[in-house]
Amino acid sequence: MMCSIKEQEINSVLTIGLFPNTNKSNVTPILDRIVAYLKERQVRVLLADDVAEVTNYHELAFKREQIKNEINLAVSLGGDGTLLQTVREVAPAGVPVCGINLGQLGFLTEIEIADLDQALDRLILGNYTLQERLMLDAVLVRDNRETYLSSALNDVVVTKGGCSRMIRLKLYIDGELTAKYPADGLILSTSTGSTGYSLSAGGPIVSPGLNVIVVTPICPHALHARSMVVSENEELRLAINAAHDDIILTIDGQNVFNLLPSDEILIRRSATCAKFIRISSEGYFHRLRLKLWRNDDEN
To answer: Is 80 a catalytic residue?
Structure first.
């Protein structure tokens, strides 16, 4: 889908929210450069109030819980983790996100520092495409009560904590018992997350154009355990059985929830989708080769 903003309308309609990772040592000069560049072009710039306090941009502060309703697009400054957090924050308002890579791999981010000025010009002019990505909702079932936990762009992971003992998990798909896993845990990922933790655990790489859920066991104590790919329209229920209560659920490797041995987790397609801004004409598989298989070119 192609987006376009008429140049004469830019000054009146375009508001960009900046979402920097303030723990990055190199973020301050890049943030200063971006703010100055956008202000010079009469673009309205906003920062979440807590970030504005840390970065001394008090005049750009806006309440974090409301900023997604005020901006036209969001720009994350950091690595993939910063982008994931930004997406979860602004996706409910339909705000598209573009990531500037200040990290190492930056598989999900779109802009490298060397291309910053040109990329900002394209953002201002609306000269980009949008790519929609599936998101998941994680729901806790405890004592027959459902509690919404969070949305996820990459994955929902149920695993043992620091305890060395494995946990036993039953997977139901649309109410039918599908598999039993004696394992360290289970990863339920989107196609976007298939190149993350799931890949490290032996799961498949899935093209982001496929709206599916990948189920990958972590260190299963069973010869038959394999990854499974299911439709986005199917509801997954994970029943936990453990002799200990050192069990955790993580969302995108960031949000952490403690679980009890008798808990169940529901994974459903979210009503919200992530919108990625794409500036480069290079496709997903070029990015895959460049970022994940780059060491092959050195041999």
So the answer is: yes
List the single range of 40-44, 193-197, 291-295 with lowest mean pLDDT: 291-295
β-pairing, 44-48 vs 247-251, is unpaired
pLDDT tens digit string along 217-246? 999 998 888 999 999 999 999 999 987 888
Residues written for the chain: 299
Q: Indicate the burial class of 61 (C-beta count within 10 angstroms; 0-12, 13-18, 19 or more).
A: middle
Say which of 32, 49, 50, 80 is annotated catalytic.
80
Q: Which residue has the higher pLDDT, 183 or 13?
A: 183
Strand extents, DSSP E, the chain: 2-3, 15-20, 44-48, 61-62, 73-78, 97-101, 128-133, 136-142, 145-152, 155-160, 167-173, 176-183, 185-189, 212-218, 228-231, 236-241, 247-251, 255-259, 264-269, 274-278
CATH class of 136-269: mainly beta
Alpha-carbon gap, residue 271 to 220, rounded angstroms? 32
* Domain 2-133+273-298 -> CATH class: alpha beta
Lookup: tokens for 12: 């009146």
